[in-house]
Amino acid sequence: MFNMSFIEMFVVFTIALVVLGPDRLPVAARELGKNIGKVKRFFNNMQRQIDQEIRLEELNRKVMAQLDETQKFIDEQKAKIAETEAIEHEAETVVLEKPDPQPKNNDQVNS
């Protein structure tokens, strides 16, 4: 973990044994282990939270891109519907404006 060789660890242990004494060394080692565990858990939790935020951001980008595509599709369909309705409206006005057939003259009917 700390890239310490056996000799370096032995020197640190010997110094700790001399400074703390044989009675307090196990308690200090236990506390050191607990604190190292807490620090590791803290950094692991931070890493998980960062990874989760990155995944959420990527998902959000994908959803927004899909929403943009859907909105473009809806706009295209609305434009097609409006175009079709305009064509149908023009056809209706042409039919309504169509002149009446020529009225029959009574002279032609009597002949």
What's a quick, concise take on this entry?
This protein is an all-alpha fold and 111 residues long.
Give the helix/strand layout.
Layout: H1 6-97, H2 106-110
Mind explaining what this structure looks like?
There is one protein chain. By secondary structure, the chain is mainly alpha-helical. It has helices at residues 6-97, 106-110. The radius of gyration is 44 Å and the shape is rod-shaped.
Could you name the key traits of this structure?
111 residues, single chain, mainly alpha, 2 helices
Q: Strand fraction band?
A: under 5%
Helix content: over 70%
What class, by secondary structure content? mainly alpha
- State the helix count: 2
**Average pLDDT across residues?**
86
